[in-house]
Amino acid sequence: MAKKKKAPSSNTIALNKKAKHDYFIEEKFEAGLELQGWEVKSCREGKAQLTDSYVLFKDGQAWLLGARIQPLTSASTHYVTEPDRTRRLLLNKREIAKLVAAVNQKGYACVCTAIYWKKHLIKCEIALAKGKASHDKRETEKEREWNRQKQRIMRTDNR
C-alpha cells in the first residue's frame, strides 16, 4: 500500500500581525514570490518571518524587503544563504502601476501581510495600507476588547 501524505493543517506560512495593528488595510493583492530552492525548503518548515517587511517599487518591478527566511541547519554548505535578501514579487504591469500610483499618494504604504501556499506555489499577500495614528490604534484595541466582553456576556447568558 502507498503511504498517505499528511494534509497540512494550514496553508499559511507566515503572517504579519503588526501590519494590521499599524495600518488600515485598503486593498489586497496576490503576488508570486521569486525564491531560491533553499528558501522553499525553509518555508516548508515554517521558518519565515514578515514582521518589518514592506514592498518597494523600482524600475517597474516590485521587491519585498525586510522579510526573513531562516536557512535550515541541514542546508547545503556550498550555497550562500542570505536570510534578509530582497526578493522579487511577481505582479502584472497593471497591478504594479496601480500600486505605484497609490503609494505615491500621501499616507499610503504597501506592506506584505502574509505568505502562504497555493497548490504547490508560494504566494505573497500584499496590501495597500494607510498608516494609523496612535489614537486610532487605541480605538481599535478598545473595540476588540469590547467585542470580547460581549462574547463573554452572551456565553454566560445562554447557559
TrEMBL record:
Domain of life (superkingdom): Bacteria
InterPro entries documented for this protein: SmpB (IPR023620), SsrA-bd_prot (IPR000037)
Subcellular location: Cytoplasm
GO cellular component, one term: cytosol
Region (Disordered) residue spans: 137-159
Keywords: Cytoplasm, RNA-binding
Gene Ontology terms: biological process: trans-translation; trans-translation-dependent protein tagging
CDD domains registered for this protein in UniProt: SmpB
One MF term in the entry's GO annotations: RNA binding
Purpose: Required for rescue of stalled ribosomes mediated by trans-translation. Binds to transfer-messenger RNA (tmRNA), required for stable association of tmRNA with ribosomes. tmRNA and SmpB together mimic tRNA shape, replacing the anticodon stem-loop with SmpB. tmRNA is encoded by the ssrA gene; the 2 termini fold to resemble tRNA(Ala) and it encodes a 'tag peptide', a short internal open reading frame. During trans-translation Ala-aminoacylated tmRNA acts like a tRNA, entering the A-site of stalled ribosomes, displacing the stalled mRNA.
Protein family: Belongs to the SmpB family.
Name of this chain's protein: SsrA-binding protein
Lineage: Bacteria, Pseudomonadati, Pseudomonadota, Gammaproteobacteria, Cellvibrionales
Gene: smpB
